[in-house]
C-alpha cells in the first residue's frame, strides 16, 4: 500500500517538488565536495599515465581518386554495327561501385605494395620493412632474421609469415578505403602512421599498384590483340616488299609483246602485289583501331586530390585520455553522492 502511494506521489510531482529535490542534491554536493575534487584528479592522473603509453598520435595521408564508369558512347555503338570495336574504358565493369573499394583491400594488392622498393630518406627500402617494426611480433626471436625481398620467391617461410602479419596490420589499423557518396565515383584512400612519410609513401604506392594491376589485367586482351596485329603487319610488310621487288624485276625484262605466255609471271607478281597492298591496308586499319581501344581502356583511375604536409593528426592524444579520466572520475563521484542521498531519503522515510 505504501509503495502504491509513493508511486502515485511521484507521478503527481509538481515542478516545485522537482526543483526542491534538485536543490537538496546541490546542497549535498556542496557538503560532500571532496569526492568531486579527489576522484577527477585521481582518474585524470590515471588517464595521463595511460595516455603516455597508449596514445596513438598518427598522421593521415588521404587521397581522393575517381574511377571512370562510363558506358558505350553513340560513336562506339555506330562503329560496332560495322564490326569495328575500339573497346571501352572499363570493360566488364571490373572497377565499378564497391568492387574498386574492395580491390584496394585484397591481400594480393597490399602485399604487392609492401614488397615495392621506394626511395625513403635517400635510400632504397622495401616498404614492408618500414611497417614491420610497428608490430609486436617483430621483437620476437623467431622473426629476428626477417628480410623482405621484392622477388617473393627469394623469401623464406618466416619472412612470408611476417609479410602476412604486416598485411593484416595494414588492413586493420593503417588503411582506410571508403566511398562516401554511393552516387558518385569518388573513392577515398587514406593511410595513418606515426611517420608522415611512411603514410604518404604507402598511400601513393598502393594507388600505383592498383592502377598497374588494371593495366596488366583488364587491358591484357587488348594488348595481346595489338601485339598479334603488329606481328602480322610486320610479316605482311615483308611479303609486300618482296612482291614489289619481284614485280620490278619482271617489268625490267624485255619481253616480246606478242607472246602472252611470257607475261604470265609478270601478271602473277602484279596480282600478288595487289593482294599484299589490300591486306596490308586492312591490317593497318585494324592496328590503329586496336591502339585506340587500348588508349581508351588505360586511363581508369585518376587522382583528384593529394595530401600536403603537414598531414592531419588522427587517433587519441594524451590529453584525450586525461579528459576521459576526469570525466569518468566526476561521473563516479556524482553517482556516489546521488546514491548516498537516495539511501538517506529511503532511511528517513522508513523512520
Structural class: alpha+beta
The helix tally amounts to: 12
Average pLDDT for all residues:
77
What radius of gyration results from the CA coordinates? 38 Å
Number of strands: 7
Query: Strand portion, in percent?
Result: 5-15%
Number of domains: 3
Helix-strand sequence: HHHEHHHEEHHEEHHHEEH
Multimeric organization: single chain
CATH class of the largest domain: Alpha Beta
N-to-C span: 17 Å
Indicate the low-confidence ranges by residue numbers.
Answer: 1-12, 71-75, 77-84
CATH architecture of the largest domain: 2-Layer Sandwich
Percent in helix: 55-70%
Shape: elongated
Describe this structure in words.
With 351 residues, the chain is an alpha+beta fold. It has three domains: 32-55 and 316-346; 59-219 and 298-314, Bacterial polysaccharide co-polymerase-like, CATH 3.30.1890; 222-295. Helices cover 62% and strands 11% of the residues. It has twelve helices and seven strands. It has helices at 2-11, 15-31, 33-54, 74-81, 98-103, 107-114, 127-132, 157-174, 196-217, 220-252, 264-297, 318-350, and strands at residues 58-67, 117-120, 123-126, 175-178, 186-193, 301-305, 312-314. Strands 1, 4, 5, 6 and 7 form a five-stranded antiparallel β-sheet that branches. The protein has a two-stranded antiparallel sheet with strand order 2-3. A hairpin with a 2-residue loop joins strand 2 (117-120) and strand 3 (123-126). The longest helix is centred in the last third of the chain and has 34 residues, at 264-297. It is elongated. The two termini are 17 Å apart. The model is unreliable at 1-12, 71-75 and 77-84 (pLDDT under 50).
Amino acid at each position: 500500500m505504501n509503495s502504491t502511494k509513493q508511486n502515485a506521489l511521484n507521478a503527481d510531482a509538481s515542478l516545485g517538488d522537482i526543483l526542491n529535490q534538485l536543490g537538496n542534491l546541490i546542497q549535498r554536493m556542496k557538503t560532500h565536495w571532496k569526492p568531486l575534487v579527489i576522484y577527477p584528479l585521481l582518474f585524470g592522473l590515471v588517464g595521463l599515465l595511460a595516455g603516455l603509453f597508449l596514445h596513438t598520435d598518427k598522421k593521415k595521408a588521404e587521397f581522393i581518386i575517381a574511377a571512370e564508369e562510363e558506358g558505350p558512347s553513340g560513336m562506339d555503338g555506330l562503329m560496332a554495327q560495322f564490326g569495328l570495336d575500339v573497346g571501352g574504358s572499363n570493360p566488364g565493369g571490373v572497377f565499378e561501385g564497391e568492387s574498386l573499394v574492395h580491390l584496394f583491400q585484397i591481400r594480393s594488392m597490399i602485399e604487392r605494395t609492401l614488397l615495392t622498393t621506394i626511395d625513403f630518406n635517400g635510400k632504397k627500402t622495401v616498404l614492408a620493412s618500414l611497417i614491420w617494426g610497428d608490430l609486436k611480433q617483430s621483437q620476437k626471436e623467431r622473426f629476428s632474421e626477417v628480410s623482405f625481398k621484392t622477388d617473393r620467391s627469394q623469401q623464406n617461410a618466416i619472412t612470408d609469415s611476417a609479410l602476412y602479419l604486416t598485411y593484416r596490420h595494414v588492413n586493420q589499423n593503417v588503411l582506410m578505403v571508403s566511398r562516401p557518396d554511393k552516387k558518385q565515383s569518388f573513392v577515398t584512400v587514406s593511410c595513418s602512421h606515426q611517420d608522415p612519410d611512411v603514410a604518404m609513401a604507402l598511400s601513393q604506392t598502393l594507388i600505383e599498384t592498383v592502377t598497374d594491376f588494371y593495366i596488366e589485367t583488364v587491358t591484357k586482351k587488348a594488348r595481346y590483340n595489338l601485339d598479334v596485329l603488329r606481328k602480322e603487319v610486320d610479316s605482311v610488310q615483308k611479303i609486300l616488299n618482296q612482291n614489289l621487288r619481284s614485280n620490278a624485276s619482271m617489268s625490267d625484262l624485255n619481253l616480246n609483246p606478242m607472246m602472252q605466255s611470257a607475261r604470265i609471271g609478270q601478271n602473277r607478281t602484279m596480282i600478288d602485289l595487289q593482294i599484299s597492298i589490300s591486306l596490308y591496308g586492312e591490317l593497318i586499319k585494324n592496328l590503329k583501331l586496336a591502339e585506340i581501344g587500348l588508349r581508351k581502356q588505360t586511363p581508369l583511375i585518376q587522382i583528384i586530390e593529394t595530401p600536403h604536409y603537414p598531414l592531419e593528426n588522427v587517433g587519441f592524444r594524451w590529453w584525450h585520455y586525461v579528459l576521459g579520466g576526469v570525466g569518468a572520475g566526476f561521473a563516479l563521484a556524482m553517482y556516489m553522492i546521488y546514491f548516498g542521498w537516495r539511501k538517506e531519503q529511503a532511511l528517513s522515510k522508513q523512520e
